[in-house]
Write a structure and sequence with these properties.
Pantoate--beta-alanine Ligase, Chain: A,domain 2; rod-shaped
Length: 139
Amino acid sequence: MKYSSQHRGYIFLLSVLVVGTISLAVTASVLLLSTSAARTGLSLKHSSEALALAQACAEHALLQLRSDSSYGGNELLDQGNGTCEILAVGGTGNENRTICTEGLRGDTARRMEILVSRLLPSVTITSWQEVSLFTSCSY
């Protein structure tokens, strides 16, 4: 059986359509994957910045407590690329104090809980940890 030149044109056109559809699907997949990777990278960056902000607030609160044992916290500090909040400092006097801080960058929040067993003559920290929910600051 002989194919006419008109049938060859249809076969070529059909081949071009199939190859074009496959190319379009591959291109769309690559674009979606790169967008997802960019969002993940940005989320990781915001997360590390939020943690740094929470730690900076913890250091600030410790310095304030060291110089004034009646420091109560309840501060919101704007750091330019995000904010951090120092919640009410738990405990009174020189011993058994609790500091809870939260760093915010974009949609990401990271929280720190610091348990201080003694402020003077030198600061003694029992625990310094990142938490998902505050447990020692529920007062």
